[in-house]
Amino acid sequence: MDTCILKGRPPHPFETIAVLVATSASMEAVLAEAGCLASVFNARLLLIHMGKKTLKLAAHLDEIHVRSGGRLQNTTTVWLEDRHVDSLLHICKENAVDLLILETIRREGILRYFLGSLVRDVCRTAKCSLLLLTEPKVVGTAFNKIIIRGVVNPKTPLTLSTALYFAQQVGVGEITMVTELDQPGLSMATAFTGSAASTDILKKQITNGEVRKIQDMVRHCRSEEVKVIEEIISGRQGYAIRQLTKNQNADLLVINSPDSRYGFIDRIFTHDMEYILEDLPSNVLIVHSRIS
Amino acid sequence: MAKLTPNDFAIFLLAISTILIFARFGAEFGKKIGLPIVTAEIAVGVILGPTLLGNLVPDLYNYLFPFTSNARVSIALDGLFSLAVILLLFVAGLELQLGQVLRQGKIALSTGFGSMVLPFASGFAVSWLAPQWFGIDTSNRFQFSMFLGTAMSISALPVIARILLDLKIFRTKIGMVVIASAILNDLIGWLLFSFILSMSGPGKGLAGIGHTIIYISAFSVFMLVIGRMFLNRILPWVQSNLSWPGGVLSFSLGFCLLCAALTESMHVHAILGAFIAGVAIGDSVHLEEKAREIMHQFVTNFFAPLFFVSIGLKVDFVKNFDLLIVAIVLIVAFFGKVIGAYLGARLGGMKARSALSVGFGLNARGAVEILLGSLAFDAGLITQPIFVALVIMALVTSISSGPLMLYFLRGEEERD
Questions:
Q1: Closest by alpha carbon to A133, among A267, A207, A37?
Q2: Nearest Cβ partner for B158 among A188, A260, A266
Q3: Which member of B98, B171, B301 has the closest CB to residue A269?
Q4: Closest by alpha carbon to B251, among B213, B285, B289, B277?
Q5: To which H or E segment does residue B406 belong?
Q6: b/e for A141-173, b at 16 or more Cβ within 10 A?
Q7: Distance between CA atoms of B125 and B136, rounded to whole angstroms?
Q8: Is any Cβ of chain B less than 8 angstroms from the Cβ of A236?
């Protein structure tokens, strides 16, 4: 496989969807979700099974295939013998995977989180889009309420267009684009000078500036079928949207992939995506825009 | 127990009220003519202090501010000014979001380090190679060189944030890089300065250097990792179960003073504890914006005037003005900071004019430099002429920063 084809390739449509599974109670649900999404997006499905291939496991997979009622018919299975992130990402790269589906728990134990679990580490390093499912269902998850994190970043228009594509395919007519406004230094800068009224005016001006930037972004990615609602919230970036997604009981949060490789230090001094990975508020779609 | 007599107490209260009232009028007047508030407050100190009032009406000056004639009032005022310094450092720490540096990535790190390394090296080199220019004792050369290096490398986040707001570039890429770099400058600068302070004073010096480094590192790492986790758990409880905003104010200020007491007892200056407590509390996502604002208002409107006016009360600015020292300090300050930040920003991939603009932005030293100079002066690290030169440098760099930034920003697309 020529891996160069991935560079500059748009993040959607999802032509190849991969799903990572391991033997667990929820394995059937994860496979059912992947089957559903592959059929919705009309994509090729690649099943990546963690662990060494054994007759028992292969038979178990066959049983699930039969029970799926044909949704997992055209599936290719790859056995991932080690649990290394690099091996998994290599398989994704070789197969030109557009979307990798992973099941994960909402909140990991503190030690596991800081040391870095396989799924969280994939989120920090993957070169393809990822869908994290927190509660996979055999009947498939309904993505009715979708929230997108709108940050001022060259990746965001592609993330928005991917979210619109996703919404359109799963039949959602409305998505919410949320921008977090965080102003480190503002309290201190305004405390020295000016009245409360002038500080309020200043804050309003900054907010309006952000609204304009977001509106410009949305204008360029407009869709006929899906309506985009814009919302501004104030608070720490990453944390504020996590709380909002939780409070609004959203089904999916769509975010940009990180700009750089997140490491241990980013978990100590948490920021942006790490706030979301620390405690997943819903299912999360991390869009890798493949900007070279 | 030694106590203030009723007369002492009356003088003490009179001194505070004089400072606060004149500082407010000075600040309002300064605002009208476009002068930074800190400059106006220092000018009030110069008027009320030995420079003007002490020379023109010495009896009135000695009655109002009896630093030499009444030890009890002098100690009480000194205690209040020290508390002001601690709380100013605390609110300076409140604004330092460490994640902001990581978010901006490589460019913030290269600019932040560039704007520290070259100023530090140039400040250190000048004072190490030519101590005679500063008239310092050669036995104290290492500490002084370390101090001047640190003084050159620090930035003033509040002043910088204000300049970016005025230029309407607070939320732009350049604005974010400048803020993130200033955060890095301040964090490393204050850690370094705590280390220098703990080496100064009688019976101290290079001997205990190992212990000092261990204490400072251990305290900072513990507070910024474990302390932050503890605060993230306790702050939501404080804000939802105790009175608002009294609960969070008492908790935060109490925590600040506790940390300050702890570092002071470790023979590291109290400012380290206050500063790191501010960083730990301010970095918490659970600290409500309103609470942060109230703390800023409380400190900047009561303690900041006390401190900045006290600068002018301590020193005769006319007698201690040394043109050579002022010129050297200004040249080294501009050269190190602007070129260092420029090189760092260029290394991070920024265009030449934008990088220069970042350099001039970070060059604003403002109140933070004055705070640093004042602490060094009190610790006996620097002489009065050097302190005066640092104050002048802080004012010149702060006033020139905005216009020079704007000049280099013109025509640059990164401004948007």
A1: A37
A2: A188
A3: B98
A4: B277
A5: helix B384-409
A6: bebebbbbbbbbeebbbbbbbbbbbbbebbebe
A7: 14
A8: yes
Q: Do domains A1-141 and A143-284 have the same CATH topology?
A: yes
- CATH code: domain A143-284 is 3.40.50.620
Please give the pLDDT value at position A1: 47
pLDDT at B414: 47
Q: What are phi and psi of A17, to 5 degrees?
A: -110, 135
Q: Is the CB of residue B24 less than 8 Å away from at least one CB of chain A?
A: no
**Distance separating alpha carbons of residues A189 and A148, to the nearest angstrom:** 31
pLDDT of residue B321: 94
Q: Domain containing B32: what range?
A: 6-79
ipTM score of complex = 0.78
Question: Cβ A206–B160 below 8 Å, yes or no?
Answer: no
Task: Let me know: does B157 contact B163? Beta carbons within 8 Å.
Answer: no
Which residue bears the tokens 């359109």?
A168
Is the CB of B161 less than 8 angstroms away from the CB of A186? yes
Chain B residues with beta carbon closer than 8 angstroms to that of A187? 94-95, 289, 292-293, 296
Q: What is the pTM of this model?
A: 0.84
Residue B1 lies inside a defined structural domain of this protein:
no
Query: Which is it for the CA torsion B104, B110, B115, B117, positive or negative?
Result: positive
Q: Is A190 on the interface with B (CB under 8 A)?
A: yes
Residue B416 pLDDT > 50? no
Tokens of B322: 């040394």
